[in-house]
Amino acid sequence: MKILNQKISAGFEFPVLFTRDALNLKNLALGWALDRLKEPGRRHAMVFVDAGLAQACPELPGRVESYFSYYRRRLALVAPPQLVPGGEAAKNSFNHALRIVRALLEQHLDRQASVVVIGGGAVLDLVGFAASLVHRGLRVVRLPTTVLAQCDSGVGVKTAVNFGAAKNLVGTFAPPFAVVDDFDLLDSLPDRDWRGGIAEAFKVALIKDARFFRWLCRHAVALRRRDPATMARLVTRCAELHLEHIRGSGDPFELGRARPLDFGHWSAHRLEVLSRYRIGHGQAVAAGIALDAAYAVRLGQLPAKAFHDLVQGLLQAGLPVWYPELARRPRGRPLAIFQGLEDFREHLGGELALTLPHGVGQRREIHEVDMPLMGQCIAELKQWNENFSSADCKTESVKSA
Known about the structure:
- This protein is of the alpha/beta class.
- 47% of the residues lie in helices and 14% in strands.
- The chain has 15 helices and eleven strands.
- Strand 7 and strand 8 (166-173) form a beta hairpin.
- The radius of gyration is 22 Å and the shape is globular.
């Protein structure tokens, strides 16, 4: 046997910029991101915009065209901004991805051209997936428009679409060329999308940053009330933690078993599927991390007070920790939510590795789950949710009186 051992090291670098009013003609952030390598000639780009965002902000496509026109010496918009469907349903069919691939090919974009995508996490996933297939990968500049995308998925290195009943089953690792987090793009969000990203902040804080976790608990009500300065601080710190993990974990492309940033996601992904995506991703993550935190308490890995602080913080931020789908049980079979464990096990290659908090700001992986004990934790979450809702109603009644 003859072996030629080949080892290749590839470096990836992408900036994440935090700004406001990125399409203001005097704001250099987007132009700098597209032209940061200072290559000869103009930077050709095609722009895709979340259709839901365009409906809420009908002036947005025109502002994109005005921006490229203003910087036409260095930037070239190859076609008018293209609208793509937003929300998780957009990822449920390959047809949307194929249409984007065709659109990119029709413009004859090369590997030095850029794809600018303005939208929520599902749109970033969808367009990023399509762009990663054309010429084995075009440059993608992301402008995330939801809290969740700005602090989590939008600064990550993955793309995906759903397949069958499984979320994110088909996808690629494709680091962006740059990310521009524009806090002003959050203003038009409905409350559900504003609050959804708060769950991801609690997720990463509980396993990585005790100080940030305590800050979130103290500011949960301000976040629910949409205080812009508080949200900007959440987005920035949460993005920093995600980037630190990607950069410093030694496993940016998830070749190993551990998935720390998927803490709480085995049940969250299943909740989304069971609800036919009626439950948003952030809302599902809130329930998922609360469930796994409750289990960590039962294992002696997390103080009960930390669990109480987590649940209270989530609820005060407007994020329920229990949904009826958690208790759904097909006749004669285990709880339907437990299929999420098997899906996660398959995703990891056969061996289960769940990240749980180990104290506040630290983590530990476990490799098996006591189903009856987890079932008790689900019942506990239901009680917590009901108690908080009841107390909240009484508070509102007193205020009204």
